Amino acid sequence: MTASRTDGAPEVFISESDMATRAFASNFAKTLSDDAYVGLSGDLGAGKTTFVKGIAEGLGISAHVKSPTYNIMSIYEAPTGKKLVHIDAYRLRSADDFDNLVVDEVAPPPRCVCVEWCENAAKSIPPDAAMVEMSIDASGRRVISILRHPLA
């Protein structure tokens, strides 16, 4: 379901439901390194938080994951000790605002840092981050495109 591509083309998954999105993201999480960044972009309601919930499930996190819109960053710990850092950059004005979150200090590796609205912190997202773009097609299905950096 999440076979890595080596030709530079994005992986594309069409999701019929939130459950399918979460299952896809759960499998995707199992392919990530111990210091992974995942940038998520897409319109409001496209399923970014649902995707992060699936990543949490894939990491074995049983906590209730919700959008950190108001507190900007939430940290969850997996049974393995790996952390999920969930950041909502919607209200950030610049990459400096993102850098002020001091992610490296509050959540050193092993971790998976998921940044919703990553375009608001683009200069601070590592170049080897997996970029997830989400949209809704005409029939209401979620279109999930994942572009992995060749070094990832």
CATH topology-level name: Rossmann fold
Which stretches are low in confidence, meaning pLDDT under 50 for 5 or more residues running?
A: 1-5
Helix coverage percent of residues? 10-25%
For the report, how would you describe the main beta sheet? 7 strands, mixed
Q: So how many helices? A: 4
Distance between the ends: 18 Å
Mean pLDDT: 90
Give the overall silhouette.
globular
- The level 1 CATH classification is Alpha Beta
Following the backbone from N to C, one meets helices and strands in this order, namely EHEHEEHHEEE
Number of strands: 7
| Main β-sheet, spatial strand arrangement | 1-7-6-2-5-4-3
What is the alpha-carbon Rg in Å? Answer: 14 Å
Name given to the CATH architecture = 3-Layer(aba) Sandwich
What does this structure look like?
This protein has a 7-stranded mixed sheet, covered by helices on one side. It has 4 helices and 7 strands, in the order E-H-E-H-E-E-H-H-E-E-E. 21% of the residues lie in helices and 28% in strands. With 152 residues, the protein is of the alpha/beta class. The chain has a single domain, classed as 3-Layer(aba) Sandwich (Rossmann fold), CATH 3.40.50.300.
Question: Notable features of this structure?
Answer:
single chain; 152 residues; alpha/beta; Rossmann fold; seven-stranded mixed sheet; 7 strands; 21% helix
